[in-house]
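BUG-518 | component: ligand-complex export | severity: low

The export step for adenosine-5'-triphosphate jobs runs without errors, but we want the raw record kept on the ticket for reference. Input record follows.
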Amino acid sequence: MSVSENVVGAGRTSLAPAQTGAVLRVEGLSKTFPGTRALDDVSIEIARGEIHALMGQNGSGKSTLIKLLAAYHSADPGATAEMDGAAFEIGKTVPHGLRFVHQDLGLILELSAQDNLALRGGFARGFGGRVLWRQQEAETRRILAAFDVDLDIHRPLAAATPVERTVVAIAAALQGWDGDGVLVLDEPTAVLPHDEVQRLFDVVTQVRKRGTSVLYVSHRMDEIFTLADRVTVLRGGRRVGTYDIDGLDSRALATLMVGNDVDPDFRADVVVRTDTSVTLEARDVRGKWLRGVTLEARAGEILGIAGLAGAGTLELPYVLAGQGGPLASGEIRLPGRSEQWHDVRHAGQLGIPLVPSDRQTEGVIAEFTVGENLSLSSLRGLGRPGHLSGGQERSLVEQWSERLDVVAAGPSAPISTLSGGNQQKVVLARCLAISPDVLVLCEPTAGVDIGTRVAIYQIIADLAAAGLTVIVASSDEGDLLALATRILVLRHGVVAEELAAAGLTKNELIRAIEGAEQ
Ligand SMILES: Nc1ncnc2c1ncn2[C@@H]1O[C@H](COP(=O)(O)OP(=O)(O)OP(=O)(O)O)[C@@H](O)[C@H]1O
């Protein structure tokens, strides 16, 4: 399907690509890594002023395509590329009108918004190179005003919300450049809570109104249907096609990505247990955001934790796993093992595995291989005391890689060569490989594709059916609806509502999270 065959949906602010032409055109793009053909003869055209989604399963080549556009990787010979009709050497040069916000945002969190913008765009300087701070401040405010954010420009970004940081990264990318071009956003909402996603959409819509096209990578289907005009789907490094969003529904899109029928509204068939014994109790849990949470969970139960940013949702899993930091307080016990209560600051000794929300900094050890990352928690149980059995380690790694369908060149491949979603699968496998009785998950499917997501839901549901207690905190309502048997909704650090998950609709859950009247 060529760009000119597409009609952009009515009611959107962009023009049909046929009327506007392509601002970016790439043809015949391939990339081979040792042992992996990450992209194979891919073509893509971005129309002027459109929001163009790029979707595909983990490892389908989305990040590779973006890294080639950014000239981070070199391309295999044979590709051609044009920006605004001018040819450029893809993988070697980056045209002026092509800007990027990568997943890690590329910001220095110890510095303020003003300093971060100046580091990219340069400081306003006067005589003798002296920094003109007043001018610098005015320029920072001018840049950020375009995005309608109320941000303290002098405060370190560490204290800003995730969406504020994302906005600063977008502003930094667009600095010194108004109008035509393409802004590439690589999974900007991977771990943004629901309310902040809407704010980011507003920012993206403003960017488009300036006439800038957006190439938007995301695994979240609802975002694509809200925001995008067209979508290019990759599968196994090849382009499946480019489609008008208005002609698709989520099941059709999921099926294009995976290659066979997938139900994006999958709900795990987990039996609600009230007859089993309580396996985890926590009382008066407090922290940076938490203001006194008391909860209990039973064997075979999947307890969901929901809430807006700042409600303490994403802090709770860390505190329960003994990683809540110096502000954490409260008590926890695992009655299946002992009646003794433990201070949550020492809960680490209970060995509750945690799938952390930020796999880059907390989940994987970048210098280790796939196998080493996966077997890390299980080493004590492999072989005789003091003697690690290489054979047992290999078989553990093989078994879990297969079970979670980890796409890697092999167990000895560096973890950094895996796609983001496949790294997440390795982190999950590491936690499951120790056969825990209680498992705590924070954003378990961040950056994970729809097919794998459903596979992960099914594995967790099967383990719960066999007696595992699961606590799952997520900013993605889809995770909670697919998995949980019961959901605690946190507001302002306390449990504001408890919902039975059976029959719960997404709107009901969102209303509860936002604290609106039911
Ligand atoms: N530097 C590298 N060395 C070797 N293989 C790599 C490298 N970078 C990516 N790959 C491989 O290329 C393939 C495509 O990876 P890529 O990161 O582009 O996928 P993706 O679609 O962005 O996935 P995700 O949604 O999980 O982020 C994968 O098989 C990956 O393991």
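Assignee comment: Attached the raw record above. The chain has three domains: 3-97+177-258, 265-353+438-449+460-518, 364-435.
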